[in-house]
Design goal:
With 407 residues, this protein is of the alpha+beta class. It contains 7 helices and 13 strands.
């Protein structure tokens, strides 16, 4: 008996040592991500960042990119806005939104973009022999689906009574989305962006010379700008300062340009996410919870439950992971599955261990030792559900609370 215990301790120590070595090896070969030096910074111009504050998720996630200007930076930026040589008012109206694909991630959209500019910019365009749509680009268009960036409704701009120019365009295509709360999956929000910027080919119309100002009043979402299965959380439009970590070979400092970002936001239904993804997992964990309620003499039935649950867990996790891109972190649901894997593994180990203890007990003669061992095994059987519920509930709660805010 002592020899068997010694070998059990050696086996446990070997597993722990192998686990520690594996963690150290993974930590050594793990790749550290290099952050891009390109950056967005919210400008001081008028903006509509959120329509209804009640739509902000409790997680603190929002569509805001980059940092907000402090008071002194805002004053300097406002002065730069007023001193800029050229101003273009940009409006966006999304008619449709569809085909949201989180595995890329991307979405399809179509709608209208309109531009309103003054004579100095038109004189610049005439001197360059270019139309204004040839100088505007949608930055987040997917390369494989790239249609004409902006398609004019009328072939030439309209000259308004005050001498300014106006032109309406349509857009249509698939666009990359870079803002989603994947860490909270399946309770998540996504932002569907449309990013417009002036294509400054000669370096003459940077951030200090040309500013894009959002048309807040007339921008918005149309009747069909909805995605079935997702809840609309409103839209936003704002100007950002886009800093490029390059001067594109033109000499001088790194380039900054004005950028308009129009976004429509959607979130998942918490109840739908629970019924679709968490209820099947809860049922499986209930099976593990009750594994020791099976009669001790039915060892085969006891041992088969954790094995069956483990195979089902792998299948269910692979099913929902197919919907997501390859992420460098664990989502909330991933962490819930880690807890489920741990509980299932512990249940299987205990089934084997308790089975051996029952076999040892049957070899004992009737007496205090046998009664004491039987009582100890029954106490373990009875306490297992409480231990599982306490451990799982605590681990899942910590997993949710430790998610970085705003991600």
């Amino acid at each position: 008996m002592r020899k068997q215990k010694r070998w059990n301790l050696v086996a446990i120590g070997s597993v722990l040592l192998a686990t520690i070595l594996a963690i150290m090896a993974i930590a050594r070969i793990d790749v550290t991500q290099v952050r891009s030096r390109d950056a967005l910074r919210l400008s001081a111009s008028a903006r509509a960042l959120i329509i209804d504050p009640r739509q902000l998720p409790p997680s603190g996630w929002s569509t805001l990119r980059g940092d907000v200007l402090n008071d002194s930076e805002a004053r300097v930026d406002q002065e730069a806005l007023e001193a800029a040589t050229h101003h273009v008012q940009v409006g966006v109206y999304a008619n449709t939104a569809s085909e949201l694909d989180l595995s890329v991630p991307s979405y399809a959209s179509s709608g209208y973009v309109w531009l309103h500019w003054e004579q100095p910019l038109q004189s610049y365009l005439d001197a360059k022999g270019a139309a204004i749509d040839q100088r505007f680009k949608l930055l987040n268009t997917l390369i494989t689906d790239a249609p004409p960036l902006l398609q004019p409704v009328d072939p030439s701009p309209v000259r308004l009574a005050d001498g300014s120019y106006y032109q309406l365009f349509t857009y249509r295509g698939r666009y990359y989305l870079d803002q989603a709360s994947f860490r909270h999956y399946p309770f998540m929000s996504v932002s569907l962006p449309l990013s417009l910027e002036f294509d400054d080919v000669d370096g003459e119309l940077g951030y200090l010379q040309l500013r894009l100002e959002p048309d807040i009043r007339n921008s918005g979402m149309g009747l069909y700008a909805r995605i079935i299965g997702w809840l609309n959380q409103g839209w936003s439009i704002a100007e950002y300062r886009h800093h490029y970590a390059s001067n594109f070979g033109l000499g001088g400092p790194e380039s900054d340009y004005s950028l308009i970002l129009f976004e429509s936001s959607f979130g998942t239904s918490s109840w739908a996410s629970f019924w679709r993804l968490l209820l099947p997992l809860s049922v499986l964990m209930a099976m593990v919870l009750l594994v020791f309620k099976v009669r001790p003499d039915e060892q085969d039935a006891r041992a088969s439950i954790p094995v069956t649950v483990l195979l089902t867990l792998v299948f269910l996790q692979q099913t929902y992971r197919d919907e997501l891109p390859v992420l460098p972190f664990l989502t909330f649901l991933d962490q819930v599955y880690v807890v489920a894997y741990v509980v299932t593994l512990v249940a299987f180990i205990l089934v084997i261990w308790i089975g051996r203890r029952y076999a040892y007990m049957e070899a004992l003669e009737e007496g205090p030792d046998r009664t004491k061992l039987q009582q100890r095994l029954e106490d373990l059987d009875n306490s297992w559900p409480l231990v599982v519920v306490a451990f799982s509930g605590t681990a899942i709660a910590f997993s949710w609370m430790l998610i970085p805010p705003g991600t």
